[in-house]
Fold tryptophan synthase.
Amino acid sequence: MFRSLQRLLCFSLPKDLDGTDSTFNTTKSVIRLTSLRKSTTSTHRPAPGTREQNAATATARPVSPTYSTTSTRNYTLASDAETLVTAATSATTQTSSLSPEAVVSLDTIPSWDNGTPYIPMLQPDGSLRPPQIAFGGYGTFGGQFVPESIMGFLHELTSVFEAAVSDPSFWAEYATFQRPQYTPLMLASKLTDTAKGANIWLKREDLNDYGSHKARNVIGQLLLARRMGRTEVVTDCAAAKHGSFTAAMCARFGLRCVIIMGEDDAHAQEEDVLEMKMLGAKILTARTPSGMGSLRAAITEALRYSVCNYETVYYLMGGPVGPSPLPTLTRTFQALLGEEVAVQMHEAAGCRPDAVVTAVGSGCGAVGLFRPFLDLSGIRLVGVEGSQAAALTEGSMGVLQGSRTLMLQNEDGQIIDSHSISPDMNISTVGPEVAHWKSIGRIEIRTATDADALDGFKSLHQHEGIVSGLDSSHAVNTAMALARELGPGKNVVLMVTGADGIGMHARLDV
């Protein structure tokens, strides 16, 4: 019976772009192996309205040694309204750390996640603590709608994930693969002057290796793959910067790498596909039954590939979509992105941001950037979708790729094809957790056309000298409009992703 089911699921595998599996290690490697960040000290000014409290109350919260959906979390907290985090960096070394002197008071919203306040992973000495794990944070969304043959892998993954993240040695190893410095948080002075409103800060994820804003998630999941004894990693890919970073890291970890791209995306990024092959990856392409060769097709085929090779393959989901616990894994590792922003904003401006803005495709940037700020009702969290790929704006609930979430579909439940100039934005669905945040009104969603994205690309290039990705370019005009709305003295943070090679001629004609 199992073999029959496996044959049924695997009857049509994606097309190999070169017909060979030529996996090799390349001499071209920009992934840095660094030691753990050392503790630094510096003097910090308190944020406006900061509530003075004992530093031990703010940072030394005992946590239970295990994390699961049934475990009782032991936190020492005065109340939800008095939940505290610390955030500071050293201006001299630019090596991030937390400081007991900088205590920021949080005002929480009603319990979005079982009433558990957010406690940062970053520690005063720059190390990472085991994070909170909550698999029930999707409301009516999420779930596991998958063939029975893959349930064993999901159960194993959940067990390994819970054990790993509660193990300090896991985070010590995780830290060795991180950048030696956080990506900068830069004041976009000319963009701010043009907007004539709040200060606009740019979180420069484009300066990550290969420009990937998913680096934190990739590293964490590859460590899990190795702990599970998997020898091959498969990942879906839209913009090639994610595939290139994954291929480079797999070479470092000694894992075979299979990257599945939509056929249209692969042909539009031929030079990047060659780079991924140089880094040792095998490239497969895919199309949907309707003929779309985009990210949706890549995710579907990656799921199928992992089912057909479940004993040896680890599926590294590129975004926070798919069956549980895949969205939780992505959110856990990506949350460090938002924690870095909190740390850097306090050092740069002595306060927290008033608004945080990012483009939303499947939601990988959003779950990382927004997660640490969800309990702060005073901070506006704004996501920007492509106008023809607006699952959060125009979608309805359904089940796709193993999860219940919002998607573009017709009255008969058939998926409607999406379109966006950015491969990362061209998807008909979104991660279940982002859909949940939208449903409870915690995040604001706006849309941008392809023309808006090209205009945003032009603004960043001309005003700040940054060649950004087309995904984050969608959010530039929204960030500027929000800055004008908030007015002078406020602070808006916009995430900037790395450039891709798609549509360069169109961008030059803007």
Notes: The longest helix spans residues 326-349. The two ends are 57 Å apart (CA to CA). The mean pLDDT is 80.
